[in-house]
Amino acid sequence: MSFTGAVKAFGAVRAVDGVDLRIGRGETVALLGRNGAGKSTAISLLLGLYAPDAGTVELFGGEPERAVRAGLVGAMLQEARAVPRVTVRELVRFVAGRYPDPLPLQRVLELAGITELAARRVDRLSGGQQQRVRFAVALAGNPSLLVLDEPTAALDVEARRAFWESMRAYARAGRTVLFSTHYLEEADAYADRILVLDRGRIVADGTGEQLRQAAGGSLVAFDLAGRGREGLQLLPGVRAVEVRGDRARLRTDDSDATVVALAGMGAIRNLEVAPASLDDAFLALTADGTERPDSTERPEGTGRPDGTDGSGGARGTDETDEMETV
Amino acid sequence: MSGVFDYLRLEVRRTLRDVGFVIGGIAMPVMMYLLFTNLGENDPTWRTASMVGMAAYGAVGSALNTGGGVAEDRTVGWLRQLRVTPMTPRQVVAGRALTGSVTVLPAICAVLLAGGLVNGVRLQAWQWAVTALLLWLGSLPFTLLGLGNGYGLTAQTTGVVNMVCNLGLAVLGGLWFPVSLFPHWLRAVSAYTPTHRFADLGLAVTEGHAPAAGAVLVLTAWLLAFGSYAVLSYRRNAGAV
């Protein structure tokens, strides 16, 4: 699967703004971004529901529509509501029947955890149950590529865990899975690779660990005790400075060097050193300056919008090229 | 091909589970027929003519309902979901049009049965068969009109537009009251409505002769017009389903 300079605009809004990426067979990839980052549009391009305004999108080496017609793709779309007046069994069986090599009905119902709902009407189920039915519809055809647009949005904690277990069981058999989410923990826990999408661009591409490192390995926080923020940006290792009230938070690649320098300045009141969380990484990667007016961001080497290689970032391009592309 | 057939079966099931369809599309025409022919004047000619008119009215309502289903499916995202299965858009549209032509049958049969069993309408066996057949075939333009609405308009607008089309064309075409009660100018308009000509097909058979060339001609013109409308609506919105 590949995007090459793909652009899709709605009026003046460039929902997908020049995305380059390749996904290999068997990968489980999370598409992470806040609401409105362009996740659903990217997925619609991938599925051939939209044609790109510029650039190309390929699926299994051809046009997305061809791969879809060949039954290689199953998808769980985000804005879908329940199909009225149809039972779970009828719906899943109908969709499975469209594919050349579907999974057995019982297996699909089991994977989606809806065996006991088979005879019920889809439009009379709860939101979470309906979401599991949509998962079943995506799985039914036993597709090589499973695309899930925010699959766990309406699920409670337990259902969410069961869902991811099923997804993993499905992915284990060598299938490719692409899911979008705005839950960082989900992306970190269940994907081999995370693509961070922000304002229509890929701003980072790598494992959760790589993303954390790319955003700055640690956070060093201390009380300013009335002093200004001047010079903090120039301390060794510091990548970004954020001031909230009287407290400064420094994102640093080398916390030891930063702490030694702070000690030299006598700025060690309530000093704290903590590893950067994925939340921090995500905020650093997608910060738009308006939410945190005090921050000074310098996330280098993370494939920022001005960089031309959207596929670069934390992940080496060489590695991707060796993989068999879906 | 099994795609179209399975889709047809699924959609017919869904339609028959629609309480609104069963009441509005089947029960209503039967009730109205029995009411209109058993209150006041009661001559056998009216019982037969009203039977054909109400069967036609039921068929038009059921045919338009197919478009309502399309609009609903667009709204809930079911058509979008179908687009990410191996089914082609052509198969989906064909399945929908066929659904329309199957779901008009209950209304036609129910009203004809009420005529024969309750109101004592007596026709030759071939007349019953040909009347039903012509009403069935003649409902195609209305299915296309419904599909045009369903693909072109939102679910809510489709519901309203379908109802206006259904009632307006029924009254204007003389499906409820004979056109002989209409003022002269209205009768002239009525002759060009698809509904009037649709009922003409069946009425001619109950009177023992073939439908007039004029009826077939006017209905064919409407078939082409509604067919073009459906194609345009579909093309304009195909990307947005």
From TrEMBL, chain A:
Cited CDD domains: ABC_DR_subfamily_A
Swiss-Prot/TrEMBL keywords: Antibiotic resistance, ATP-binding, Nucleotide-binding, Transport
Domain ABC transporter: 1-224
Membrane topology (UniProt): Peripheral membrane protein
Biological process, per Gene Ontology: response to antibiotic
Pfam family, one: ABC_tran
Cell location: Cell membrane
A GO CC annotation given for this chain: plasma membrane
Keyword field contains Nucleotide-binding: yes
Keyword set includes Membrane: no
Highest taxon in the source lineage: Bacteria
Broad class of where this protein is predominantly found: membrane
Annotated region described as Disordered, given as residue ranges: 286-326
GO molecular function ontology, one term from the record: ATP binding
Range of residues in the leader sequence: none
Compositional bias (Basic and acidic residues): 289-307
Gene3D superfamilies referenced in this protein's UniProt entry, alphabetically: P-loop containing nucleotide triphosphate hydrolases (3.40.50.300)
InterPro entries: AAA+_ATPase, ABC_transporter-like_ATP-bd, ABC_transporter-like_CS, ABC_transporter_ATP-binding, P-loop_NTPase
SMART domains xref list: AAA
Name used for this protein in its record: ABC transporter ATP-binding protein
Annotated source species: Streptomyces naganishii JCM 4654
TrEMBL record, chain B:
Entry annotated with the keyword Transmembrane helix: yes
Molecular function GO terms recorded: ABC-type transporter activity
GO biological process, one term: response to antibiotic
A GO CC annotation given for this chain: ATP-binding cassette (ABC) transporter complex
Organism: Streptomyces naganishii JCM 4654
Membrane topology, as annotated: Multi-pass membrane protein
Protein name, as recorded: ABC transporter
Stretches that traverse the bilayer: 19-36, 48-71, 92-114, 126-147, 159-177, 212-232
